[in-house]
Amino acid sequence: MLRNVLQQEQPATYLVIGDPAPLEPQPDGIDGPAPAGLSLEGATPRLPDLGRQDLVLVGGLESLARKDGEILLSRLRDVYARRVLARVVLGGTWQQKDMTAFGFTRLAEMEPADGVLYGFDVASYKTTPDWLNPRFWANPELWDKYRW
């Protein structure tokens, strides 16, 4: 999965936070930059120093306190990453509904002990609904009939 993402995206900047295993942080045969790495505990305060990343891989999120994990995911999603991949073991602290609430989509199911891979891409996280266009908002045929 990660190999496909790296081949498709070709990220200029790439950050690994925590333990991404079993996802290889730099799969063999992939050209590009070696990823920068941070521990989960010290990642949030260091994000401003690193700037915006094209791809961030987060692993072992369940080992963080829930509030710290929420802050990390929301900062990555909103400010510091264009695309985020998060490997989470569901059950205790994190549930599927929690990841969905943060706007992440389920990408792959791994071995039960390895968790689930979720992804967030700022370019495609929300599709534009059909009703959100000028066709439904402007009614020129009613402009002379009613006074609003």
TrEMBL record:
Positions of the UniProt region annotated as Disordered: 18-37
Pfam families (UniProt xref): DUF6231 (PF19742)
InterPro entries: DUF6231
Protein's recorded name: Uncharacterized protein
